[in-house]
Structure formats: C-alpha cells, structure tokens
Amino acid sequence: MNKKFNVNDLYKPGKDPFKKFRKLSLPGLLIVFLFLIVLYFVSENPKIVETGVDINDAESLVKYEVTVDFHIDGDTTRFYFNDESYSFRYLLIDTPEIGRKSGEKDEPFAKEALHRVEDLLNDAEHIYVMFDQSQTDNYGRYLVYVFADDIMVNEQLVKEGLAEVKYVYPPNTTYENKMRQAEEEAKRKKVGMWR
C-alpha cells in the first residue's frame, strides 16, 4: 500500500533541521559564500573564445573576439573573424537608415547611431560577437550580439534611443527581455528617437 506524501513527515519534532549548517565555522561559511559568488559569475558570463574557430562552426552564446573592418551603419558592421572580413547584423535591434543613394536623405538619428557604434568600438580594448541560435539572416549576414568590452552595444543603442527593438524572431531571443526593458527606459526618459 502506498502512503500519501505529507510535508510534515519531513520534520521530526524536537529535532533541529538546520543543525548541520549551524556547525559551520566562519571560514566554512566564507568558503560557501565565495563558491556561490564564483558560481553566479560563471553562469552569468559567457565563455570567451578568441581564435581558431571556423565561423560556420561557432557555438551559440559564446563570445568570439573580433576586430573592426569597417562600419556600414548603426546596426551592421564588418568584422574580422579569424582574419576574414564578414558582415555582422546586430540582433534584435534596428537603427535608422543612412541614405545610400544619390539624393536620398538619412533618417533622423541614423548618423548618431553610426557614430555611437564607432565610439563604443573604437574605445574598447576588446570587441566580441556572440551568436544566438541561428547564425545568418536572408542576406547572408551573421546575426550577433556585439560587446565593446563588457558593454552590449545592441542594448546600449536601445538605451540611448538610437535603436528600437525590432526583428525579434525565435529562436534568437535570448536577450529579448533585456532589450525591451532598455527600450522602455529610453521611452520613459524620452531620449534619442523617443523625444
């Protein structure tokens, strides 16, 4: 006959369930605390791989170090990945378009977005790209989150009102909530395109 589970069976009257933990000394507690801190940072920060991976074999949510070849606009940059230049499209964002054809005007904040990307990347000691689940778009551009040292450029542009959250297509949604929060903050502060 099966006995029904009762949570009260876990606690025995007169017995201290935390007795083992109370015996930990201050150094023991300190070690446990430090272990938890290390565990937090390891789980929050993606692994960084600097070189030696073919771009088509790149893993999701791993940072790869790159260098700038040239900037196309606020949401597209050509980076050198293992000494070859590729076009990279910043995930989950859209910046205003720069007029490319003769007589075509720039959209408002297009130049500001481009200059901000240039500033962030030029000031960075290290630049990383991180793929989500799908690697390329219909134009053959690599879809990435871009990091200037510890700053996610995609998110920073949204926070400053120089980009909006757009082109959110599963499964590339790892940072969707973070981007939407940044956009709400920009709208609330009325910065950039949200003035």
Quick take:
Keywords: Endonuclease, Hydrolase, Membrane, Nuclease, Transmembrane, Transmembrane helix. The protein has 195 residues and is of the alpha+beta class.
Kindly list the characteristics that best describe this protein.
195 residues; alpha+beta; two-stranded antiparallel sheet; 5 helices; nuclease; endonuclease activity; hydrolase; hydrolase activity; Thermonuclease family protein
Explain what this protein looks like in three dimensions:
- With 195 residues, the chain is of the alpha+beta class.
- Helix content is 30%, strand content 25%.
- The chain contains five helices and nine strands, in the order H-H-E-E-E-E-E-H-E-E-E-H-E-H.
- It has helices at residues 19-22, 26-44, 110-123, 153-159, 176-189; strands spanning 48-49, 63-73, 76-81, 84-90, 93-94, 127-136, 142-148, 151-152, 164-165.
- The chain has a five-stranded mixed β-barrel. A two-stranded antiparallel ribbon has the order 5-9.
- Strand 7 and strand 8 (151-152) form a beta hairpin.
- Helix 4 packs parallel to helix 5 (176-189).
- 26% of the residues are buried.
- Keywords: Endonuclease, Hydrolase, Membrane, Nuclease, Transmembrane, Transmembrane helix.
- Pfam families: SNase.
- Residues 62-195 form the TNase-like domain.
Helix percentage range: 25-40%
Strand content: 25-35%
| Molecular shape | globular
How many E-type strands?
A: 9
Main sheet strand line-up: 2-3-4-7-6
Structural class by SSE content: alpha+beta
> Distance N terminus to C terminus?
70 Å
- Main sheet characteristics: 5 strands, mixed, barrel
Low-confidence stretches: none
CATH architecture level-2 label of the largest domain: Beta Barrel
CATH class of the largest domain: Mainly Beta
Radius of gyration: 24 Å
Helix segment count?
5
Overall structural domain count: 2
Kindly report the CATH topology of the largest domain. OB fold (Dihydrolipoamide Acetyltransferase, E2P)
What is the element string, with H for helices and E for strands? HHEEEEEHEEEHEH
Whole-number average pLDDT? 86
